[in-house]
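Aim 2 progress update. The chain analyzed this quarter is reproduced below.
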Amino acid sequence: MGLAFFDLDHTLLNGDSDREWTRFLIDEGVIDQEASNRANEEFYADYAAGTLDIHAFARFAFAPLARYPIEKLELWRAQYLRERVEPMITREALALVEKHRKAGDTLVMVTATNSFVTRPIADLFAIEHLIATEPRRENNRYLAEIEGIPAFREGKVTRLKQWLATRPELSNTDSWCYSDSHNDLPLLEFVNHPVAVNPDKKLAEIAAERGWPILDLHQTAPAERQDKSSARA
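Predicted structure tokens:
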């Protein structure tokens, strides 16, 4: 038995769940298109450059969560999952997760995207354990701020160590990490078996230098994707 850690956006998903959530809310008329698109693209550019201010991004990304009751947000989220997330899941990603499941590994999704968006996506992959950035909640409403340590860059390793501290039976086991981004270098360096998945330019260079495997999980065209009911089994 080992540990398998999976990044989400551009790794298990052929796309970005956070950006698609924002685009979905724009299309539904929930948030302003021009201002949101501009901010979304600016934050995404910062992320790609490795300069993202995660707290500033959270104030932007969590604003719709703070504005509406959870019941309404959950209705939108269900529609978003059907229309935006499921088409981003490829059979290659499902097969990779299933490979580790059959090996008896403990599966963990580790993502900077907030848990409101990502918990049901982890469920689509039948991944029980989720380490994500947590929006703060008070009186059954979300706030536009982060609870605790964000699961971003070095924060992913910090959160993961906290998670592992409560599970001593998982210590000293083989571990794998799959990610597309150089922002996840601290997490990739934390495990025994780092794997670059459809990596950005910087991570591709690092993977080549260090001899890390490089995978392509995004080969399947939308019309060829299998029925994802098997992922929920």
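The chain is about 50% helix and 20% strand. Residues 223-233 have pLDDT under 50 and may be disordered. These observations will guide the mutagenesis experiments scheduled for the next reporting period.
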